[in-house]
Amino acid sequence: MTVSRRTFVQAMGLALLTPFTVRSLAASNSETYARFNLGSSPFNSEIDNDGLVFDLSVASGDPSQTGVVLWTHINPAAYVSGQTLYIDVALDEGFTQPILSAEVSADDITADRDYTVNIDLEGYLSPNQRYYYRFKYGNLCSRTGRCHTLPTGSLESIKMAVVTCQDYTTGYYNAYNHLADEDVHCVLHLGDFIYEYAEYEGFEDSIVHSLALPSGGSVAMNLEDYRHIYKEYRKDKNLQRAMEMHSFIITWDDHETADNAYWDYDRDTLGVPSHPYQTGNNNPDQLRQLRRDAQQAWIEYVPARVKVNEAASHAFDYLQIYRSFQFGDLVDLYMTDSRTYRTKEPCKDGTAWENYWCTDYENESQTMLGKTQRDWLIDGIVNSNARWKVWGNQTLLAQLAGTALGRPLVYANYDAWDGYQWEREKILSTVKDSSIDNFVVLTGDLHSSITSYLKVNFNNINNWNYDNLVGVELMTPSISSPNMNDTVEKGIDVGSVFTSLLNGGVQLNNPHIKDFVSNIYGYAVIEFNHSELNWTVYDIDKKSDNPAATKKIYKEFNYEPVGMWLTEK
């Protein structure tokens, strides 16, 4: 009879004290994950509700079938050199059914990681099981967190929440207070967890949380600035509560670094067109360091099981965040990174006339994902045996353009997939040629709610041409980042194409788009079962500090892959 390490640990319970330490069972040599010894923890029970020690509470991320990454932060004012951090995991909130306790090495609580602690419990938990966890430091105990491992085998249904774009300076996180109470397995965050701004540009007269960055800059300039922003965001009690109650699966978009970030392959450095480092001296070494600083702050403050090589000097080698998750036989989820490897947005460097006639968006050299990641995504989707193949994507995949009889005349946003059309068609045509009829793309970024058919050829306006239909794209509204309606009301130029489309022209010009609205805030919940999915978009006010703000259903949609029917309920 073979006994796994996990089974042995659970059978021995708190009596087990391993003779060796475990840093991480993930595919990484990184010191990102703290070392721990299994064993008993102190019996103190005074909860740190005031955040004297655990000032940013607790969180969990990247659940797998047998593990999860647990996270906390020690208040530097409460830090004691050499003092041990403990963690308890149990089946019940009262911790009367313990699964394991562990002692985290004091050497892994340091200023080098800004006193953040990530613990990877891969291999120690059981599938499809809810767990409760807490940290202990000194004589105080953190608030209790809750996580849920992924299921294996046959699965009838699974429900997830989907969020994106949570600028803290222009809105309140009322949506997160409601999200904490949702009955979901996990939360998918599609990017823009933070914004690099001290104040959101163009909304300086509407700031509700102004950030004073350590550098004194208007945007993040270094590691300390990024760390400061994460800490300010994570102080929010609504966000803390949501992250205590649910495990998050998080990717990033541009604002975790800077607006419209890309990789400048010609100079092998970060491209950030509106950042002072590029508009100023444009020093490639300075820009490379900015990317590294953004990457480090992200892995410190986001609980995620990612590949990190601390010895690497290049951004591509230092951190890989694209990864996949398997929810039994029902859903395979692929979370991509569309900022690290992407080429520059096309058709922006000429005159208005030259940009109008530019067709660089058709070039094969234009890439959002890079070849390695693109092949990984395609191979995963095509070879998946799950009922649903789901792509966690950052920017709008479907076409958004001013058209005439389906022919695009001008595109609204080259920062989205319209600027990378060869790669988009490569992915969608391969999915279609592989006879996959249950392909779903979940998207953030545009601060809007959009439901759309996906097509190999968007010039074909017929939504019933099954030889051209690939699947559906579902975009969740922003948690708090200014939407198009607010932006236009501020008198901010969003471009002539966007302006004309917002005046009732989105669906007329883009018949594959079933629904479009950009005057709400909130999140969405998606439920998969074998024959259909249900997508519910919630509208929750972000303009007043009111966690009990009314939660309204904006719309509900149903999608049946047999026949590719996307309907409003």
TrEMBL record:
Organism in which the protein naturally occurs: Microbulbifer epialgicus
Residues annotated as signal peptide: 1-26
Keywords: Signal
TM helices/strands, residue ranges: none
Residues covered by the Phospholipase D N-terminal domain: 57-149
Pfam families reported for this sequence: PhoD, PhoD_N
Residues annotated as domain PhoD-like phosphatase metallophosphatase: 160-534
Protein name: Alkaline phosphatase
Recorded superkingdom: Bacteria
